Amino acid sequence: MCHSKKLVKLAVHMPILLPLVLLYYGAASTHCSTVHENNRDLQALLDFKQGITSDPNGALSNWAMSSHFCQWNGVKCTPTPPLHVTYLLLDGQKLSSQISSSLGNLTFLKYLDLSSNNFVGPVPLLDSLQQLLILYLNNNNLSENIPDALTSCSNLTALDLSSNSLVGSIPPKLGLLSNLVYLNLRSNQLNGSIPGELGQLKLQTLILSNNRLSGEIPQAFYRLSSLNYLGPIPASLGNNALGLQVIDLSFNNFTGQIPTSLGKLSNLTFLNLEYNWLVARNNQDWEFLNALRNCTSLQTLSLSYNELHGSLPPSIGNLSASLQTLLLGGNSLSGQVPQSIGKLRGLTWLALDENNFSGTIEGWIEKLKSLKKLHLESNKFSGHILS
Ligand SMILES: *[C@@H]1O[C@H](CO)[C@@H](O)[C@H](O)[C@H]1NC(C)=O
Ligand SMILES: *[C@@H]1O[C@H](CO)[C@@H](O)[C@H](O)[C@H]1NC(C)=O
Ligand SMILES: *[C@@H]1O[C@H](CO)[C@@H](O)[C@H](O)[C@H]1NC(C)=O
Ligand SMILES: *[C@@H]1O[C@H](CO)[C@@H](O)[C@H](O)[C@H]1NC(C)=O
Ligand SMILES: *[C@@H]1O[C@H](CO)[C@@H](O)[C@H](O)[C@H]1NC(C)=O
Ligand SMILES: *[C@@H]1O[C@H](CO)[C@@H](O)[C@H](O)[C@H]1NC(C)=O
Ligand SMILES: *[C@@H]1O[C@H](CO)[C@@H](O)[C@H](O)[C@H]1NC(C)=O
Ligand SMILES: *[C@@H]1O[C@H](CO)[C@@H](O)[C@H](O)[C@H]1NC(C)=O
Ligand SMILES: *[C@@H]1O[C@H](CO)[C@@H](O)[C@H](O)[C@H]1NC(C)=O
User: Fold this and answer.
1) Which ligand is the nearest neighbour of the Cα of 237?
2) With a 6 A CB cut-off, is 309 part of the ligand 5 pocket?
3) pLDDT single digits (tens) 282-340
4) 84 and 98 together in one domain
5) Could you tell me if residue 248 is inside a domain?
6) Atom 11, ligand 8: which residue's CA is nearest?
7) Is 379 helix (H, G, I), strand (E, B) or coil?
8) Is 384 a domain residue?
9) For residue 105, which atom of ligand 1 is closest to its CA?
10) Which residues belong to any copy of the Leucine-rich repeat-containing N-terminal plant-type domain (predicted)?
11) Are residues 116 and 14 in the same domain?
12) 3 and 54 assigned to the same domain
């Protein structure tokens, strides 16, 4: 029989002895490795299992006392005693229930993946998981608000809550997750605006598409939070904080102009703003195109189904030579397509459909030799299309 309970108590009462106690504990538990010496982790897993109402694949069928919990399906532990759960991977198992907050007791957890199941109810309280790096709860049917308590998981680098039924606004406190590089909240029912606090993050990927978000796309979002106010900073430092590579804000209710500050994101590869109410009516509104020249790795730009009016500025041709996808359909663009678009030699997909373009496509179309998809329908183009 292991003495883990007694030892834990001892440690609490005599913190100075803790290293010694842990040494002893470590040594002792190697002699009884089949026994569940870590009752707290065991209990948390058992509580989680008990809450599951449906397990059609039998994903948890070997979660029984006959084996050590570190050998259960989907569980991985620290390599040496005292054994603690570090990974819990149960994605795509058709599990149904609420997610038990007992998981919040797995304090050594680094990686929690419960994606693509049928979990319902609120996002569980996981506020003690200081070591958690990856949290994937996407593709379930979780409801209610995104809890502020998530921000206690201060080491989180990737958070995916996409394709659930979450409501309310994006908690500004997410801006406290200073290690977060991947944030995906796609396909929920989130409303309100993007909190400026998210600008404090060193995000590389931000996916907020298919929600009910509104307001303007904040300029502040792309700046290096408070450091900018401390005076001149080395360019390299400034650059490091602006590493966003993927931005997807499509299918929301964003309004206003497309911010020129996007030009500060020199590593941007993917920018999808389609299906919003973003406006361009005059030269100043189109200034973002000049700014985007800085994004020399840009491969995809979609501005389809917004409120872009007037003629397409010739500066479109100054976008990145890496650009492969340029989607401008479903706006109110008119006049001739500028010849400079022929400079975008890497384009494989160009959509100009459902606008009011006129004139001929000759002069530029033949330069786009890599094109595989071309959408020109519902315009007023004239002349003949070359073979
Ligand atoms: C966490 O563990 C403690 C015992 O260490 C227990 O009292 C508590 O109920 C557990 N919390 C949850 C949410 O299961
Ligand atoms: C978690 O973050 C704390 C500081 O907030 C740090 O001391 C610790 O090393 C981090 N742990 C991991 C696993 O990154
Ligand atoms: C998700 O849960 C809501 C209740 O919160 C329910 O109305 C809806 O039908 C569920 N959706 C799916 C796909 O199960
Ligand atoms: C967001 O939706 C909730 C209902 O889910 C509503 O009470 C709240 O007023 C909405 N907030 C905004 C800013 O639209
Ligand atoms: C977007 O805003 C309009 C009003 O401007 C509103 O009618 C519509 O329901 C909103 N759409 C979403 C998905 O919130
Ligand atoms: C851009 O990417 C390069 C190469 O991955 C990296 O060295 C650089 O720090 C990144 N720049 C920013 C602003 O994050
Ligand atoms: C483009 O990059 C240059 C140098 O990196 C920088 O000075 C300028 O402010 C950037 N332009 C925009 C619009 O961000
Ligand atoms: C394209 O950029 C060059 C500088 O790199 C500039 O001289 C030219 O005016 C730009 N063209 C357009 C159409 O903006
Ligand atoms: C398309 O352009 C014509 C003029 O060429 C104008 O009369 C019409 O209102 C425009 N339609 C749209 C949808 O912008």
Assistant:
1) 6
2) no
3) 999 999 999 999 999 999 999 999 999 999 999 999 999 999 999 999 999 999 999 99
4) yes
5) no
6) 315
7) coil
8) yes
9) 1
10) 38-78
11) no
12) no
Placement of tokens 């959408």 in the chain: 375
Closest CA to 277 of 215, 326, 207: 215
What confidence category does residue 146 fall into, taking pLDDT thresholds of 50, 70 and 90?
very high
CA of 82 to the centre of ligand 2 (A): 19
Work out the number of other CB atoms within 10 angstroms of the CB of residue 261: 18
- Cα–Cα distances in angstroms (integers) from residue 91 to residues 75, 107, 254, 287, 360, in the given order: 12, 20, 33, 44, 52
Q: State which of 41, 85, 105 you would mutate to test the pocket of ligand 1, scoring each by most atoms of that ligand within 8 A of its C-beta.
A: 105
Pocket-testing residue among 131, 132, 177, ligand 2, by greatest number of atoms within 8 A of Cβ:
131
- Given the CA of residue 154, which atom of ligand 2 is nearest to it? 5
Count of CB atoms within 10 A of residue 365's CB?
18
Domain stop point among 139, 168, 197: 168
> Domain ends where: 149, 168, 187?
168
Q: Provide the number of structural domains found in the chain.
A: 3
Say whether both 20 and 114 belong to one domain: no
Average pLDDT over residues 27-42: 55
Flag whether 230 is in a domain: no
**pLDDT band at residue 1, thresholds of 50, 70 and 90?**
very low
CATH number, domain containing residue 110: 3.80.10.10
One-letter amino acid identity for 162? S
Q: Which ligand is nearest to the CA of 336?
A: 9
The widest CA-to-CA distance across the chain, in whole angstroms, is 88
Ligand positioned closest to the Cα atom of 242: 6
306: its two tokens: 């917004």
Range of the domain at 285: 254-387
10 Å Cβ neighbour count for 349? Answer: 17
Ligand 2 center–CA 158 separation, angstroms: 15
* Residue 177: inside a domain: no
Domain check: are 17 and 44 in the same one?
no
**For residues 80 and 109, what is the distance between their CA atoms, to the nearest angstrom?**
15
